[in-house]
Amino acid sequence: MSANRLVGLLFLGLAACGGQADDAQSNAPAAPVEVRFVASDFAFDGPATIEAGVVTFVLENTGQTLHHLQLVRLPDGMDFAAFQEALGQMQPGTPPPAWFVDVGGVNPPPPGQPARTTLMVEAGEYAVVCIVDTPDHVPHVFKGMIQPLTVTPATTPSAPLPPSDMMLTLVDYGFSFSAPPTAGSHVIHVMNGAAQSHEVVFIKLHAGRTMDDVGAWGATYEGEPPFDTYGGVPGIRPGQMVNVHVDFTPGEWAALCFVPDATDGAPHLMHGMVLPFTIS
Predict the structure, then answer these.
(1) What are phi and psi of 148, to 5 degrees?
(2) Could you give the CA distance from residue 266 to residue 270 in angstroms, rounded to a whole number?
């Protein structure tokens, strides 16, 4: 075979491979599939099965207290019943066990509005839980706010993670924005660059209230909270990346992490993982 013919065949082969990749990309949807859950006191209403891929989770809250949606990946060999049994043996204030693999979800939405996060979900067995413990310091999962979720292998190409306009890096123990947050609607690319799981909860303080008021309320849960929640993402594992959709309006805000520490079990905000910021 001549050298020219060999080069020609290689070129045609590469072109064919490129065409297949282009075709696969063109078959992918333009936007991730939306999966909607409704939280109430104390249950979830949402699908039992979804397909693997990049998914936008939408959480609405119709309850009278705060709720979030935490996805937990079940380890190989552990079914949902065994997960529930093991969960019931967890002691508050202790480090999370190795089998508790948190992989994101949606933190408490704003009043009367849904909250959204977009993330890659791999095939496997999961639990959907709410670990929020207002108003009586009993995590809602122990009041029945838990359900299984099966993620089946993808049968079609997945949409890519949507573009973001800023980045937020989670570290032990802090938050680092790529640029100062500004008023308006944002898609924030959140990355856990730490050695353990972290989250971000966005809150906006009520007019005239301070972070001291937030701390005082958090100690008792008495009365109305001095802030409104604006979503975010619950615990994500080291190296995981998600997109959080949030609308910043003028006022005093803060980013918080309540995930229990891997060494002493204390919420990370007790280790200083609190970032107040002002939106003007």
Answers:
(1) -80, 155
(2) 7
How many CA atoms within 13 Å lie on the side-chain side of 10? Answer: 7
Give backbone dihedrals phi and psi of 43, rounded to 5 degrees, phi first. -160, 165
Strand arrangement of the beta sheet that strand 49-51 belongs to: 49-51, 146-152, 124-129, 69-73, 101-106
Q: Rounded to the nearest 5°, which phi and psi values hold at 108?
A: -50, 130
Report the alpha-carbon distance of residue 147 to residue 149 in Å, rounded. 7
Tokens 């070129």 — which residue? Answer: 11
Q: How far apart are CA 68 and CA 225, in angstroms?
A: 16
In whole angstroms, what separates CA 230 from the centre of its chain?
13
Helix (H, G, I), strand (E, B) or coil at 247: strand
pLDDT of 144-201, one tens digit each?
A: 999 999 999 999 999 999 899 999 999 999 999 999 999 999 999 999 999 999 999 9
As averages over each run of 10 residues, the pLDDT of the chain (280 residues) reads 39 41 59 96 97 97 97 94 90 84 97 96 97 94 96 94 96 96 97 97 97 94 95 97 98 97 93 97
**Burial status of residue 132 (CB atoms within 10 A of its CB: 0-12, 13-18, 19 or more):** buried
Asked whether the beta carbons of 204 and 232 are under 8 A apart, the reply is no
**Three-class DSSP category at 89:** coil
H or E segment and range at residue 254: strand 251-256
Output the six-digit token pair for 221.
């849960």
